[in-house]
Design goal:
There is one protein chain. The strands form two sheets. The protein has a nine-stranded mixed sheet with strand order 5-4-6-7-3-8-9-10-11. It is α/β, with parallel strands linked by helices. The chain has twelve helices and eleven strands. It has a domain of 179 residues: P-loop containing nucleotide triphosphate hydrolases (Rossmann fold), CATH 3.40.50.300. Helix 1 runs parallel beside helix 9 and helix 9 runs parallel beside helix 11. The termini are far apart.
Length: 335
């Protein structure tokens, strides 16, 4: 590592400090691969970097032109695209909740939430990148912790990275629900890392390079980042935001771990993330929201917006948050 990169060791130190494990020195092959990797501004990104872009020569930006998050992927010929698609997910469910499992050899895992797993036929494919979108108080952090707890119970290694709360707050939340995160952390099966979002944004290049190696060293099976919205807020330019988030999600996929991100919902649209980016880059999207009836009764509801390579229900189902975690009532209706 060069002297200029020395200041970015805080991420690796934070990870090692919470896992209680010793870091391993990078081997010669990893140094060579790093030296041969293209510079950040030389890598191709479908969102562009302000200097060069896939869409510079008149191509269509799926998020809209000139850094505007409006516009659409299907602006030119939606009818043709719709007719040629085999389903809403490009070969997935036709909107009905069928009984047969999706015909695939891809290894799958359960989320670990009662009712919701029954809405997903056969489970989520391993190494998928998942996002849970919801407004404040809908249980996004609980969703992520429960996802990890389910894996820990099955002997998997798990990592929770929080940009919103302290390490102790996360541990207390899990332990209060009887999930014994203290014991899992003591046995090096769990790592809970709290990062400052400003430092993370300033050192994002370093994190993108280190995260796959750190996940491999920890032999992690599941990872949660709570929340990607704080990372997105670090960038004023929509074009820069799209490029950075795209590169970050690409590094998570390269890490080879099943990852769940949490994201704040848009103030104008509960079905979209705050900046309308992350749902396009992930393989599965869960939407948590408040639903109010004509009598002003308010309930929590979950909807599976998409899961690539998996059949799933498209119904909106009520759920509640208790000391046992989140429970989805698959057989019930909202009102």
């Amino acid at each position: 590592m060069s002297d200029e990169e020395g200041d970015d060791d805080w991420f690796e130190s934070a990870f090692e400090g919470d896992t209680g494990t010793e870091s391993s020195e990078p081997d010669a092959d990893s140094d060579t691969a790093s030296a041969e990797s293209p510079a950040e501004d030389e890598r191709d990104s479908p969102f562009g970097d302000g200097e060069s872009s896939l869409f510079d020569d008149g191509g269509d930006d799926p998020f809209g032109a000139s850094g505007d998050d409006s516009g659409g992927l299907f602006d030119d010929d939606f009818a043709s695209a719709f007719e040629s698609a085999s389903g809403p997910d490009g070969g997935g469910s036709d909107g009905e909740f069928e009984d047969e499992d999706f015909d695939s050899d891809i290894p799958r895992i359960d989320v670990g939430i009662d009712g919701l797993d029954r809405m997903i036929q056969g489970g989520i494919p391993e190494r998928h990148l998942i996002v849970t979108v919801g407004s404040a108080g809908t249980g996004k952090t609980t969703f992520g912790l429960q996802f990890l707890h389910h894996g820990l119970e099955r002997g998997e290694n798990c990592v929770f990275i929080t940009l919103e709360q302290s390490h102790s707050a996360i541990m207390d939340t899990a332990n209060d629900r009887g999930w014994d995160f203290d014991e899992y952390e003591a046995s090096d099966q769990l790592a809970v890392v709290d990062l400052d979002p400003v430092e993370m944004a300033n050192s994002l290049d370093n994190i993108r390079g280190e995260l796959p190696n750190l996940v491999e060293d920890f032999d992690a099976d599941r990872l949660v980042l709570d929340s990607v919205s704080l990372l997105e807020m670090m960038y004023d330019s929509p074009a820069k935001r799209r490029t950075e988030v795209f590169d970050f999600t690409r590094s998570l996929k390269a890490a080879g771990v099943t990852t769940m991100l949490t994201s704040e919902a848009s103030e104008d649209n509960p079905y979209a993330s705050r900046h309308g980016i992350i749902e396009y880059l992930t393989d599965a999207v869960f939407v948590l929201q408040y639903v109010r009836s004509e009598t002003r009764e308010t309930r929590l509801a979950v909807e599976i917006q998409k899961i690539r390579n998996a059949n799933h229900s498209r119904e909106t189902k009520p759920y509640e948050i208790t000391m046992d975690g989140i429970s989805v009532y698959q057989q019930a209706n909202i009102f």
